[in-house]
């Protein structure tokens, strides 16, 4: 499978039992397999169908339709599993069927409609061959099933000097996923950083430039890669081409676990790239960032 990076987004299109058409970033897909025999788990979450064994490893299988509020597949083994890998974990999404892979521009992906509500489970909407495709917010689905624990930081992991170095430094976080945004902010606030947060790349650019005026510029930008209208790669390019903010330290913080992301991040001018979510790794990345600014 070829995957375009940068302004191009490769989507795997699939349908739920209801016929609803959804897309998922192809970089998050490891493989597609027929639904295997499942073992039920005691006290399992109602949206988890069970576990499967895949090449010697245990795979949790989620009934995706039920997880986003639709009628599920019940006990049926019809359909297939989309095996996803993101944020340092792997899981199987049980869906009715996979259709095809398409490519679109991130500029053609729009944020979810304002009236979609907090349980929409989509990060954006685009149009493919005249059909509306909703892009799945898989992080939100997984958070509902297994909420992330509060970020725990062992103070001994950072030296006293490193803690002092971080305290009060100005950081902007941009992420279209409310779940990921909150995880990041919890960690940054525990470190004593001066944090602001926005939900889009355009808003990040506006705030970065606005903060130049009072003479207290944002020192570090922590940005997601996958965002509608303008992705993280495009955001970095815009920053590097804008003289007033070109020197901003940019850490790309992504659920996509791929060496391709690291290479592309470097190409567009990002200073560092990190896979979500580890409070410890994020803390150490911020120490690196602030030390480089000294």
TrEMBL record:
SMART domains: CheW (SM00260), REC (SM00448). Residues 170-291 form the Response regulatory domain. InterPro entries: Chemotax_regulator_CheV (IPR024181), CheW-like_dom_sf (IPR036061), CheW-lke_dom (IPR002545), CheY-like_superfamily (IPR011006), Sig_transdc_resp-reg_receiver (IPR001789). Keywords: Phosphoprotein. The modification 4-aspartylphosphate is found at residue 224. Coiled coil: none annotated. The keyword Phosphoprotein applies. SUPFAM superfamilies: CheW-like (SSF50341), CheY-like (SSF52172). Residues 8-147 form the CheW-like domain. PANTHER family: CHEMOTAXIS PROTEIN CHEV, CHEMOTAXIS SIGNAL TRANSDUCTION SYSTEM RESPONSE REGULATOR CHEV. This is Chemotaxis protein.
């Amino acid at each position: 499978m070829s995957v375009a990076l940068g302004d191009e987004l490769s989507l795997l299109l699939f349908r739920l039992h209801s016929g609803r058409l959804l897309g998922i970033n192809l970089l998050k897909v490891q493989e597609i397999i027929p639904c295997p025999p499942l073992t039920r788990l005691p006290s399992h979450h109602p949206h988890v169908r069970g576990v499967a064994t895949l090449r010697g490893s245990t795979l949790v299988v989620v009934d995706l339709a039920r997880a986003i509020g639709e009628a599920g597949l019940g006990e049926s083994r019809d359909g297939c599993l989309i095996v996803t890998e993101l944020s340092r974990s792997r899981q199987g999404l049980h869906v009715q069927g996979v259709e095809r892979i398409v490519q679109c521009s991130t500029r053609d992906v729009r944020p979810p409609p304002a009236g979609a509500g907090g349980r929409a489970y989509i990060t954006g909407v685009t149009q493919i061959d005249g059909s509306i495709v909703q892009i799945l917010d898989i992080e939100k689905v997984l958070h509902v099933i297994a909420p992330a624990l509060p970020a725990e930081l062992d103070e001994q992991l950072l030296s006293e000097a490193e803690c002092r170095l971080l305290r009060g430094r100005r950081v902007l976080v941009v992420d279209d996923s409310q779940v990921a945004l909150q995880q990041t902010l919890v960690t940054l606030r525990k470190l004593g950083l001066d944090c602001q947060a926005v939900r889009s790349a355009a808003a990040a650019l506006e705030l970065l430039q606005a903060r130049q005026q009072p003479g207290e510029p944002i020192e570090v930008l922590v940005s997601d890669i996958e965002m509608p209208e303008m992705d993280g790669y495009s955001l970095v390019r815009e920053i590097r081409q804008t003289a007033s903010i070109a020197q901003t330290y940019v850490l790309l913080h992504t659920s996509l676990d791929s060496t391709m992301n690291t290479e592309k991040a470097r190409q567009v001018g990002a200073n560092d790239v990190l896979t979500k979510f580890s409070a410890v790794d994020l803390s150490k990345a911020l120490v690196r960032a602030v030390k480089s600014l000294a």
